[in-house]
Write a structure and sequence with these properties.
By secondary structure, the chain is of the alpha/beta class. It has 2 domains: 14-125 and 279-286, Quinolinate phosphoribosyl transferase, N-terminal domain (Aldehyde Oxidoreductase, domain 3); 131-276, TIM Barrel, CATH 3.20.20.70. It has 11 helices and 12 strands. The strands form 3 sheets. It has a 6-stranded parallel beta sheet. Helix 1 packs across helix 4 and helix 3 (62-72) runs antiparallel to helix 4. It starts with 13 loop residues before the first helix and ends with a strand.
Length: 287
């Protein structure tokens, strides 16, 4: 069974994806290239292959796989069969690749590494999204991403039905506990931010207690991150906020706990695990 791709899963532009994939190919091809394929396969040999899902999951990152093959040899033809954002069963053909056999073999591992990793993130995200279905809570990712892969990993989260938190330190303010210690408290931290922040940038503040939440609400903070609060305390926080700020729950979010967190009434639930701990989806390339 294959579901229709979500409308917001348009992949990042090829110009942004290509440098990421190129670095991975350079790492794999090294100084001498694919000596195994060059010494075992005649140069004029053509081949056809299928990219196949060997377990059920949600698809993401086929653009990275396609880019890997294209960079190895522009003569390789890549035809996606399942759109990013779709959920497929084991045995589903995700793409057809055709062209020079040597090039196909040389790009295989990098293509599978990207696709398997990103499909794994999309699948982990989809599991949390399904678990909170019927509540208003949205699942969002964090900055706990693999260095150099944030663009693709955050895209994979969207393919799984989740939403993106900030992409980096420069696109939103998130004041955390160490900022508060260094700044001298919530009031001083907020005062400093507002003195220099542009009007288009949101302010989010992390709190650990209901007392901190009350102080943040009094200061008119846009979004408040409720850190490591149990569902019962989250219920109290939602009641205390009365809609005066957007509330994000974070910390110890698992498939077993996420429903109770969502039912507290928070607006967002952030999970680092969907990017840093998601197991790769098992994919294979069959000639």
């Amino acid at each position: 069974m294959t579901t229709t791709a979500l409308p917001f899963t348009r992949p990042p532009h090829a110009l942004l994806v290509e440098p990421i994939v190129r670095r991975a190919l350079e790492e794999d091809l090294g100084r001498a290239g694919d000596i195994t394929s060059e010494l075992t396969v005649p140069a004029d040999t053509q081949a056809k292959a299928r990219l196949v899902a060997r377990q059920s999951g949600t698809i993401a990152g086929l653009i990275a796989a396609e880019t890997a093959f294209r960079l190895v040899d522009a003569a390789l033809k890549f035809e996606a069969q399942a759109p990013d954002g779709s959920t497929v069963q084991s045995g589903t053909v995700l793409a057809l690749i055709e062209g020079p056999a040597r090039a196909l073999l040389s790009g295989e591992r990098v293509a599978l590494n990207f696709a398997g990793h990103l499909c794994g993130i999309a699948s982990a995200t989809r599991a949390l999204v399904d678990a909170v279905s019927g509540t208003k809570a949205r699942i969002v990712c964090t900055r706990k991403t693999t260095p150099g892969l944030r663009l693709l990993e955050k895209y994979a989260v969207r393919c799984g039905g989740g939403f993106n938190h900030r992409f980096g330190l420069d696109d939103a303010v998130l004041i955390k506990d160490n900022h508060l210690v260094a700044a001298g408290g919530i009031g001083k931290a907020i005062e400093g931010v507002r003195a220099g922040l542009g009007h288009m940038t949101k302010i989010e503040l992390e709190v650990d207690t209901l007392a901190q939440l009350e102080e943040a609400l009094a200061l008119g903070v846009d979004t408040i991150l409720l850190d490591n609060m149990a569902p019962q305390m989250l219920n109290q926080a939602v009641a205390l906020a009365k809609g005066r700020a957007t509330l994000e729950a974070s910390g110890n979010v698992t498939l077993a706990s996420v429903r109770a967190i969502a039912e507290s009434g928070v607006d967002y639930i952030s999970s680092g695990a969907i990017t840093h701990s998601a197991p790769s989806l098992d994919l294979g390339l069959d000639f």
